[in-house]
Amino acid sequence: MSEQRYQAVLAVIADGCTVVEVAGRFGVSRQSVHAWLAKYEAEGLAGLEDHSHRPRSSPVQMPADVEALVLELRREHRGWGPRRLVHELSRRGVDPVPSESGVYRALRRAGVIEPGARRRRKDTWKRWERAAAMELWQMDVVGGFALRDGTHLKCLTGIDDHSRLVVCAHLMRREVSRNVCDGLVGSLGRYGLPVQILTDNGKVFTGRFNHPPVEMLFDRICRENGIDHILTAPRSPTTTGKIERFHRSLRAEFLTGRVFDSFVRAQAELDAWVAEYNNDRPHQAIEMQTPAARFAASLASDVPVTVDASALERDRNGNDWITRTVSAVGVVCVAWQQISVGKHRAGARVDVHVTADLLQIWDGADLLKTVVRSDPGKEIRVKRAFSMPPRGA
Fold it and tell me: pLDDT tens digit string along 190-242?
């Protein structure tokens, strides 16, 4: 290109051709030929080379101090994207506040994020949520809490569907019905009784799909407190999408790379993080409000707060309950009928609920097995059943 411009300049200077003739010969405008002549006269051959068209300055360029603040915030909070960063700049009084696209470009320039194609949301997509707080809670169990001694904890989590307020973050050493229900009752006592609770079909939540169906402790507590316990369809994790999205934030912002010194320490640090999540952390899905603010704004004044927790204290002293010891081969024997509950339970004491036609084997609040009585008329030797295990066991 620079050689072509040089030939055009020579045609005018050396050959005496007019600018109009040279412009027609090279297929350019007269203004271009005049510009080449001026650059050649001022800079020589170097003036005919291509140069950057980038402006020397831009009135919309992000100020250096703002860009530095953006990158520092991102370094301290790796999970913050452009929208959250713009929100935080506004809270810190930055004026003017840069656009989300400007923050995104600043992150790209610094190599903090990798450019990539984003999945386009379908036009038919619509966010589903309840109209007010306490209409629905979503609850689930998540793992990944590592202790220094090598053990791992589980956590019963729950969020309010409308406000995204975390209503439960209860750590457990074992994922068993009694521990789950302790967490449930604690949340009910703190926030009141929701209209509905949505869970998956895990055995700590429901026994409706057992053969035959049985009422688990979680189901019973919901029924006795007038809460509608609803379940997801099988293999439909997106139904509880809000609690799953909370789990993603929990792992990314709290759990990744952390090992806790003790159970008590883990619960204390989790409580502190949840308090920040509820009260200080703006949520993109609710227009950058905090969950606590949205919860308070939409909370009805007549939410019941009296919780019936008597199901946690019930003893199994009736004549329809007996106790048995699991044999060395993992078998429970009732009226000469042998029921296998697994060798790993050898030596354990279990309770057996005897009905006219069924035998139900319980380990604390966990239903191990339900079988049909092989001889309903046979007399059963009665031994008093154990009480429910103490809370937190």
Answer: 999 999 999 998 888 988 877 777 788 899 899 999 999 999 887 666 678 89
CA separation for the pair 213, 195 (Å, rounded) = 24
Could you count the other beta carbons within 10 Å of the beta carbon of residue 252?
11
Select the CATH number that applies to the domain covering 136-298 from these four: 3.30.420.10, 3.30.110.40, 3.40.1000.10, 3.30.70.100.
3.30.420.10
Give the start-to-end residue ranges of the domains of the chain: 2-48, 64-109, 136-298, 315-393
- With left for phi above 0 and alpha for psi between -120 and 50, is residue 371 left, alpha or beta? beta
On whether the 64-109 domain is CATH 1.10.10, my answer is yes
Q: Is the model's pLDDT at 393 over the cut of 50?
A: no
213-227 pLDDT, tens digit per residue, is 778 889 989 999 999
> What six digits make up the tokens of 96?
């003017």
Q: Mind listing the pLDDT tens digit for each residue in 36-80? A: 888 888 888 787 887 776 766 666 678 888 888 888 888 887 777
Q: Considering only the top CATH level, what class is 2-48?
A: mainly alpha
Residues 6+ apart with CB under 8 A from 72: none
Residue closest to 97 by CA, chosen among 81, 82, 111, 112:
82
